[in-house]
Amino acid sequence: MIINHPLLGPRDSAEFTYLGDAKLIDRPDAASENAAQEFYEYAYLRDNPAGWHKELWFHEAGDRSWLVVTRNTLTHEISKVELARDVARSRGRSK
Amino acid sequence: MSQVNRLNGGQVNADQPLKFKFDGKSFTGQQGDTLASALLANGVRLMGRSFKYHRPRGVLTAGSEEPNALVELRTGARQEPNTRATTIELFDGLTAKSQNRLGPLQFDLLAINDRFSNFLTAGFYYKTFMWPAAFWEKIYEPIIRHAAGLGSLSLQEDPDVYDKGFLHCDLLVIGAGPAGLAAALTAGRSGAQVILADEDFRMGGRLNSETFVLGDQSGADWADSVIAELASLSNVRVMPRTTIIGAFDHGIYGAVERISDHKIVPDAGKPRQILWRIYTKRTVLAAGAIERPIAFENNDRPGIMLASAIRTYANRFAVAADQRIAIFTNNDDGHRTAQDLHAKGIKISAVVDVRPDAPRSMDYEVLNGEVVDTKGRLGLTFAEVRLADGTMRALECGALGVSGGWNPNVHMTCHQRGRPTWNDALAAFVPGGVLPPGMTVAGAANGDMSTAGALKGGAAAASSVLKDLGLTAKTIKLPQTEDTPVAIKPFWYVEGCSRAWLDQQNDVTVKDVKLSHQEGFRSVEHLKRYTTLGMATDQGKTSNMGGLAIMAELAGKTIPEVGTTIFRPPYTPTSIGVLAGRHRGQEFHPKRLTPSHKWAQEQGAVFVEVGNWLRAQWFPRAGETTWRESVDREVLATRKSVGVCDVTTLGKVDVQGADAAAFLNKIYCNAFAKLEVGKTRYGLMLREDGIAKDDGTAARLAEDHFVVTTTTANALPVYRHMEFVRQCLFPDMDVQLISTTEAWAQYAIAGPNSRALLQKIVDPDTEISNEAFPFMGCANITVCGGLRARLFRISFSGELAYEIAVPTAYGDALIRKIMEVGTEFDVTPYGTEALGVMRIEKGHAAGNELNGTTTAQNLGMGRMVSKTKDSIGSKLSEREGLNAAGDLRQVGIKPVNPADAVPAGAHLMNADGPVDAAHDQGYVTSACFSPNLGHAIALGFLKNGDTRLGEVMRIVSPLNDYATTVEIVSAHFIDPQGERLRA
User: Fold this and answer.
1) Number of domains, chain A
2) Closest to B739 (Cα-Cα) out of B865, B654, B645, B659
3) CATH top-level class for B1-154?
């Protein structure tokens, strides 16, 4: 597969390491009242869609960016590649 | 008598005779021959035995779809099994032998299987060898393996090298027949970056095999002239002998280029084959079509071939398949073979056509009927024909050309989500469904069966690709040529036949398909797996259609209703060697050497692989005969005076920024925010699920600067994890990470004299007294007269110890300096074994303890998990299940009898009671012989271990049938108070 890196352009997927569902960005707040349940769901529960999936890839043999890749798991079509940091910020993560 | 069947002309060179051997017998062929054509030229029709029934077999095709003529090519270490005689380019000195036989090819002793064919039908493995179960492994399987199977391996190492490479282009054209050439020429002249690949050593496809003219040129000459023009264009790469093996994601294609397969040994410095990864924007698939046979009784005798193959042998290779040839066909194309062979003076016994309205001929007899059976034990002698009026005729012939029509070669269109669709006019499947992105199919592969149609289709496909890519397409002038429509009557098998072969490679007959249907295997996928139809190395390129058609008829459905199985990469069998490339033996993975490697080699070190690193394991000295002697000496010398060990391989991550301490607070479960500058702290990292991930140290060199170490094995995953936390979880933290593992050479200097030794290295202004530089201190210093260095007072061995790091380029110089100034202390280099012994003596956890199942609590570090801050894994480490009473705790273990061993992996059992999994108390993780204590010691995990010190238990190791009694002790065998560390 070819991943169109937002900073570096098209790169072979062999340069990347795959992690999984980009929902891992949404780490719960440990101070929340329901933190135990939320962390359990965060650590263990994932969707496994046949179709579009947002997932985390690490450009390990490249610039070490974590990327959020929107990929169709049926066709391997990639519709969008974003810096994970931008996605994290847009989802309200900060410090 | 040689080359009895050789004709004149063709694209072989009679002036270049080539000598070769087949089954020990010498023959002569010509340059341009394949092994198959050269054997046929010499009158050899019998080339092998079949897989299951050991029936005599010859060649069926003239291409890579060949199911039958598989041979062992070459001898010795280069011997290669299951090589298709139809694709082996003849070279001088070639040796090959037939395979899958017991005894000589003419008298195969296993031909007896043919007599027992009633017992060897579809599913016979499942039915016959079910009982008794124990017989399978010892009796049935060895017999079957011996009798079935194909060629054999040499079991020697392949002496040749294989390479890998990468290519990029705008347009990949697969196949250099008329469609492919027209496409490549259009795109090439228009300036696109083009790769034209063809599996054949002679490009041109069917143009080489037919007698049609293109304009005023023969097909082969026209092809030659186009290829010459393409080769002259700098934007076109012409790749003969190159098989595209698969269409992968996003326009990536795999290709195997056979650089040296046509040579007796590769030229100096040349690889045998190259695996190319081709990145292309667009692809034109011009893979042509493959003729299919018709099934009739005994249709597998040597001499029975595809009609198109007979034509190829005659026109391209100047070989008559025999001097007397008959044709059996259901379409007009079959008649072409008779016309071409007749024109070359070969006797045509008759053309048998199932259609009453078949074309007539003035030159030979055309019969309306069917071939119902054949004769000839080791080669065809007669074909039995039942005429339309019911009368029988025996046709004398040594070759029978069969044509059941042509299948567009849709293989590559299926590699992703393509599903071929049925075309009634062609009575064949054509490309359908979703093709690989960027792929266009042209020519016969797309159902354009005429030469003119192929040329037009190829040029049009290229034009549309060029337009797509924003390039201006130049139109090329296509020559006038053959444009005959397809005339075919679907006809798959002769009524009443039973031992009529569909898949010759896997020995699947019409009878097997009927039986499978009768036994309820109604889906094509089930049919395929039950009968093994199409599951041989040819993937059923010639056989699948026949099976599908029969199945459709039995089910009372149409072929499109039944559907088809699809093809998968690789297009043709691909050697493991080329997939491995240079990654074999020592080069299987990259090798990383530490800066002291050369020095360690000079000391005679024994090395061990740790991930990609090679580390010194121990340093044997003269007179030492076992590794234990060396390791014991290294441990004792270090604890007595001073030892030095290369610890460069530990992962090092530089963490800088205003939020560096806050960041460490997130990745480590223990607190770092208040760590003073100039101090180092042990850190335990958890996974988010609360399990220990890795450990190491973090040294605070400045308010905003830490140096983090990881274990050697986890250097990469930990760095990846840290970047994940930084970029994905806390994107606004002011912190930067960089892996500096390779940037610093680092040595542990351990033992009571380590400070005295170090004093001789560090520059005078560096104060390293115990007061000025206490345990867990760290500093940027200079050594050896101004060289920048980092000094850490940390200890894995439990001794007074330091780790000193200098820029990698100085690593070799530093180890030599340490050894030089350490002479007076008898400084001893130690390897990973001694390192391991000392850390077990000290009770330090390592990879065996942080094994992916253990928590901070298990490791006796439960209190380290800070409750006052949120860190990765802290929340889930609080879970009830990870904090249950009776949990495993790390303990020390020593044998009651000092002479006994304590093997790692052994399980702990109570002193009395049953020994079984239900009564398991824990297990041994690390074990060694302690030269300081004079007996074996071990670390392990024991239920409630922290409250069971002094208890006598049993360890059992059922794997090696070992058991003994041990005592549970503190994990800190040496210096439990840590006085040495702080000295």
Assistant:
1) 1
2) B654
3) alpha beta
- Cα-only R_g, chain B: 37
Burial of B862 (0-12, 13-18, 19+ CB in 10 A): middle
Residue B203 has, within 13 A of its CA and on its CB side, a CA count of: 29
Q: Which fold has domain B491-562?
A: Arc Repressor Mutant, subunit A (1.10.10)
Domain spanning B643-830, CATH architecture: 2-Layer Sandwich (3.30)
| Residues paired with B952 in a beta bridge | B967
A78 to B689: CB separation less than 8 angstroms, yes or no: no
What tens digit of pLDDT does each residue of B282-294 get? 999 999 999 999 9
Structure tokens at B923: 């297990």
CA distance B617 to B603: 12
Find which of A11, A17, A25, A27 to mutate to test the B interface (most B CBs within 10 Å of its CB): A27
- What is the distance between the alpha carbons of residues B712 and B648, in angstroms, rounded to a whole number? 9
Superfamily (CATH) of domain B293-404: FAD/NAD(P)-binding domain (3.50.50.60)
Other residues' Cβ atoms within 10 Å of the Cβ of residue B191: 15
From the CA of B417, how many Å to the nearest CA of chain A? Answer: 8
Among B982, B650, B810, smallest CA distance to B818 is for B810
pLDDT in tens, B894-949: 999 999 999 999 999 999 999 999 999 999 999 999 999 999 999 999 999 999 99
Burial class of B56 by CB neighbour count within 10 A (0 to 12, 13 to 18, 19+): buried
Is A20 within 8 Å of A56 (Cβ atoms)? yes
Pick from B776, B774, B783: nearest CA to B814: B783
Q: What distance in Å separates residue A52's CA from the closest CA in chain B?
A: 16
**Domain membership of residue A20 as a residue range:** 2-90
B1 band by pLDDT with thresholds 50, 70 and 90 = very low
What gap in Å lies between CA B631 and CA B831, rounded to an integer?
8
Sign of the alpha-carbon torsion through B322, B327, B333, B339: positive
CA angle A19, A20, A21 (to 5 degrees): 140
User: What strand order describes the sheet that includes A78-83?
Assistant: A17-21, A52-58, A66-72, A78-83
Q: What is the DSSP letter of B941?
A: E
Which residue of B278, B719, B875 to mutate against A (max A Cβ within 10 Å)? B875
Mean pLDDT of B330-344: 97
- Which residue among A39, A64, A93 places its CB closest to the CB of B876? A39
Instruction: Verify whether the Cβ–Cβ distance B729 to A84 is below 8 Å.
Output: no
Count of Cβ atoms closer than 10 Å to residue B472 Cβ = 9
Residues of chain B with a CB closer than 8 angstroms to some CB in chain A: 249-252, 279, 416-417, 434, 437, 659, 662, 688-689, 716, 720, 723-724, 727-733, 870, 874-876, 878-879
Collapse the DSSP code of B664 into the 3-class scheme (helix H, G, I; strand E, B; otherwise coil) and give the result.
helix
Question: For residue B145, is pLDDT > 70?
Answer: no
Query: What size, in residues, is chain A?
Result: 95
- Interchain contact, A93 vs B730, CB within 8 Å: yes
Compute the distance between CA of residue B898 and CA of residue B644 in angstroms, rounded to an integer: 29
The residue-averaged pLDDT of B126-153 equals: 63
Residue-wise pLDDT for B30-75, tens only, equals: 999 999 999 999 999 999 888 888 899 999 999 999 999 999 999 9
Residues 6+ apart with CB under 8 A from B315: B10, B208, B209, B210, B211, B340
**Sign of the alpha-carbon dihedral angle for B103, B109, B114, B118:** negative
Q: What is the mean pLDDT of chain B?
A: 94
Q: Quick check: do B1-154 and B491-562 share a fold? A: no
Residue A95 placed within a domain: no
- Interface touch B874/A1, C-beta < 8 Å: no
What the block records as the tokens of B961 is 């049938």
Q: Where are the domains of chain B?
A: 1-154, 162-289+409-468, 293-404, 491-562, 643-830
